Task: structure prediction
Amino acid sequence: MTDDLLGRHRSVLPDWLALYYEQPLEITHGEGRHVWDAEGNRYLDFFGGILTTMTAHALPEITKAVSDQAARIVHSSTLYLNRPMVELAERIAKLSGIPDARVFFTTSGTEANDTALLLATTYRRSNTVLAMRNSYHGRSFSSVGITGNRGWSPTSLSPLQTLYVHGGVRTRGPFAELDDYDFAAACVDDLKDLLGHTRPPAALIAEPIQGVGGFTSPPDGLYAAFREVLHERGILWIADEVQTGWGRTGEHFWGWQAHGRSGPPDMLTFAKGIGNGMSIGGVVARSEIMNCLDANSISTFGGTQITMAAGLANLTYLLEHDLQGNARRVGGLLIERLRAAAAQVPAVREVRGRGLMIGIELTRPGTDEADPEAASAVLEAAREGGLLIGKGGGHDTSALRVAPPLSLNVAEAEEGADILEQALRSIR
Ligand SMILES: Cc1ncc(COP(=O)(O)O)c(C=O)c1O
Result:
C-alpha cells in the first residue's frame, strides 16, 4: 500500500529528501513516455525521473543490452580492461568536440563535477572557482560549495573559494532590462572587473541551461565571450552538461555548442540521461588536464560493464533515430503550445527554454514575486490530469519544469500541452 510505504519512507529516510505531491506517488513501471503508479493510474511522464529517462521507458533495445550484459558480467572494476567502457569513452571523446580528449566515468553528476574541480584546482594550483548565480552542480561537499542556489546549499563550509558571476538568468538581476547584446557586454565587463579583484581562479563552471535553477539561460554566445576573457588568463571553462547532454536542447548535441564561437570548453561533465536511468556520470577533459594528477584516483563503480552497456545502447538509439532532431521539432511545437496557453494565464511570468527543456515561471499576478504555491498547485493539477512534470527555480521554486523523454511524439506533446493548459487555468 502506498500509504504504508509513505509512513515507512518517513520513518527511515532523511527529512530533507523531498517527495513530490501531497499524496506521494509510487511509480511501479513505465513504457515509452508513460509510467504507472501502484494504484494502476497511467501518466504521461514529462519529467523522466529528473531527466534521467532520456530516451524512453523500457526501451527494448536498451533493456536487451542491459540484460545481455547482466548475464555475462555486471562489474569487474577499472583494474581490468573493460570493453564497453573503452567503447563508450571513444564515442563520447569524439562527440565532445574537445581535442585530445580523455574520459573518466563516475556514478553521478556530483562525482563528475567533483572530479572536474579536483582536476581544475590541481592543474591551475588554485582553489578559487567561478560559478554562476542560480547554479546547481551536485550535493557533495565540494559541489555544494559552487552551487549558487540557496535552496540547495545546506552548508557554506567549502574547500573552495567561490565567486558568483552574472549571466545565467536572462530575465532577472541587474542587467535584465538590457537587450541581449548589452546584457552580454555587461556580464563580460562584470567578469573582467571581478577578475581584477581576486587571486587567479582555477576555472569557471557553468550549466549552459540551468537545470535545478528552472531552465534559465543566458543569451547564446555569452559563454563564448567569457571563454575569450578566461583563456587570455589561462582560466579553464567547465561546461556542466549533466542536464543538457546528448541533444535535449534540440539545436545542439551539447549545450555548450550554443556558445561555441570561440571553441569547446576545456572540460565537460555529464550524467543523468546518458544511461537512460542507469547511473553513469563522467568528465571529458583535454589529456594534459586529465593527466595532471600525480596520485591514484579511482571510482569503484564508475564505468561498470552494465551501465556502459546501457550507455552504448542509448547513444546508438539516440543517434540512429535522430532524437536531437525530434527534440527540436516536437519541443518547438510544445513550447509554442505552452506559450499560447500561458498568454491566457496572468500568473505565468515567462515560458522559456529550448528543445525538450521548457521552464514556466509563475509569479503573483501583477507583481514580480515568485509564487511557489501556484507552482505546487499546477504540479498537483497536472498529476490529476494524468501528467507528471517537475519544479525548480532559484527564485523560491516557482518554475515548472517540462522535460519529457526525447522520443516524445506529436500526439503526446499535444496531449501533455492540453493537460498543462488546464492545470495552469485552474490557478487563475
Ligand atoms: C547541472 C547539474 N549538475 C550536477 C548535478 C548532480 O548530479 P547527481 O544528482 O547525479 O549527483 C545535477 C543534478 O540535478 C545537475 O542538474
Notes: The pocket of pyridoxal-5'-phosphate is lined by residues 108-110, 113, 136-138, 207, 211-212, 240, 242-243, 271, 281 (CB under 6 Å). The chain has 13 helices and 15 strands.
